[in-house]
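I am writing to request your help with a piece of structural work I have in hand. What I wish to show you is a protein chain and, alongside it, a tokenised description of its three-dimensional fold. Could you please explain, in whatever detail you think fit, how the structure tokens follow from the sequence? You will find the record immediately after this paragraph.
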Amino acid sequence: MEAITQLFFSTLFASLVCLNANTLQTYIVQLHPHGITSSLFNSNLHWHLSFLEKTVSSKEEDPSHRLLYSYHSAMEGFAAQLSEAEVESLKKLPDVIAIRPDRRLQIHTTYSYKFLGLNTTRGNAWYKSGFGRGTIIGVLDTGVWPESPSFDDHGMPPVPKKWGGICQEGQSFNSSNCNRKLIGARFFTEGHRVASMSSSPNIVQEYVSPRDSHGHGTHTISTVGGALVPMASVFGNGAGVARGMAPDTHIAMYKVCWYNGCYSSDIVAAMDAAIRDGVDILSLSLGGFPLPIYEDSIAIGSFRAMEHGISVICAAGNNGPIESSVSNEAPWISTIGASTLDRKFPAIVRIGNGEALYGESMYPGNHFMTAGRELKLVYVTGGNRGSEFCLQGTLPREKVRGKMVICDRGVNGRGEKGQVVKEAGGAAMILTNTAINLEEDSVDVHVLPATMVGFDESVRLKAYINSTMKPMARIVFGGTEIGKSRGPAVAQFSGRGPSYTNPSILKPDVIAPGVNIIAAWPQNLGPTGLPEDSRRVNFTVMSGTSMACPHVSGIAALIHSVHPKWTPAAIKSALMTTADITDHSGKPIMDGDKPAGVFAIGAGHVNPGKAIDPGLIYDIKPDEYITHLCTLGYTIKEIFTITHRNVSCHEVLQMNRGFSLNYPSISVIFKHGMRSKMIKRRLTNVGSPNSIYSVEVTAPEGVKVRVKPQRLIFKHINQSLSYKVWFISRKRTGTERMSFAQGDLTWVHYKNTFYRVRSTISVTWKAKQ
């Protein structure tokens, strides 16, 4: 009997292994761009298909049916559905560099332009840049709602002659939906389609076209370059003139995100098309957890875009405040964290004992001062059903009907909790932050009277409920307030450094407005995005580094319009060296209840007025990134995967002794036993001729800093001068715990103090191994 049982399980295991080996999965196959076998074929497509013809084992199937995409610009290669056995066969073929499984990534205004100092007065950054005129921004996202007034092309110049993109037709979308503002739209669905075959297609109504059925893409692309829309608001909240960061830029949507995420095979295909189409800026409000650069398709595609002179701006991710949670870390990408504005939407909770608990809401009743009626409070806890989170089906109608229900943040969406309360008969809701969210204040356009309170207030609220048999409360709505609170501050959720895969580069690069941002919204969705929400608006509010990223993409477009020949590295330098480290009151930018550190804000908060005229820039040539990858200890194959360059790191490092990447921020790492470190930097004058700059240093605690020379004398525009910095540790290395310190190094123009070219310094003492 035992032998029979063993035989059964052996047969079952062998069957499962065989089944697994034959299960198809999407892979991205990267090929040598000058492969020895490519010359045998008339086109790249036929070359790519030849690899499938050699490896696809099924006799009944045409190998071309397995091909999803053929890539040429973002990388050389293709995406195809393959079994594990076929992947193993492919790896043995000549010209195959790397094979990576498809990854699923996730998507991470009426006032923010004013908050950033942009206005229509003569001499302002908008005026100097022509409002971004002539620049093309490509956005990779969930699509676009072209009828939104934010995409009206009144007064827009003709489409640039270099534009080679298309307006791809599809479901509820035709070529007439594009104009001189929205000049292009494409959709990429192959990776998503094959990954989603097993799930029901009826879960979500999805347009198989560039049209947006989620809202995220419409919101981000209007933040980048939305046209002027007067009298914009969300049911009266946040009323004002809506416009994007670069209101006269041309914009193009590349739809890569669908109801279950954004697949890297689709993203690479979109980057491939965008490079050929002729975009100047690429904006990606999406990402995942950190990966080594040679495994990161966005990083690899971005390198190729950078070589074509395209600036790539990416969100830092929403996994903060966890250490090393920042995503999109490649040094040629601009990585953007999120900050708050000084605009609030107060909705105070007055509880029965007379206390007032501060909360915020964009419930439609909040555009004028109103006091809701007093209601009995209820907080449904107990059991393991998740009723404290107000999950679907967990709130007994008899307990919540006609009452104000308390719902903890977490598990399901904030807006969804309100819908659950409403369906259970609740009359109002108080969203309470937990120890994870602390005092983060992302607001929502709730489906019933509701507000959200911070963690401290939630503790007081729950203590009150436990202190009385009949807890009562009312919500007092206070409208929109501007300038009464400090800002900017770091958003609690914003991805934090140090970089997990490359701590020698400080990430994020800068922060920008990403909390409670009002921007365009599709007409097929209510402002909460819930299917049950039948209300319709042209604008709604969203929070995330997804909202911060397009702010910087728009500002990069302004810089590009003023300086069209600048490299992506020069544009990034301008953004970083002019960033603010103080808020609008002149005090340090805060991160919760403490001053923000460099791993939260990077170089600081973006300042467009200064960024278009930085005085000096730190430029980086593509070859310098390759030398940097050599210093990280990457192999020849890994570097080739990223750069398509065959290099001998031994020779490269011999020729570049003491190399440090010419990055606008400085990251110093003291390993065990190390006492000093020297770094080099090179500055290029883009201000005025005959300029003299002197250095100012705020040394990190425990470090002595020496700079040589201490003055830089530029005689000409575009002249470059170098300097060296020595960092001498005064701390004992090799302790049990890693420790950090921060400071800055600033080059100040001797006559024009507008030019202050600041580099953030981060110092790390590694723990004893």
About this structure: The domain at 131-192+211-342+489-603 is CATH 3.40.50.200 (Rossmann fold). The chain has four domains: 25-101, 131-192+211-342+489-603, 346-479, 616-620+661-765.
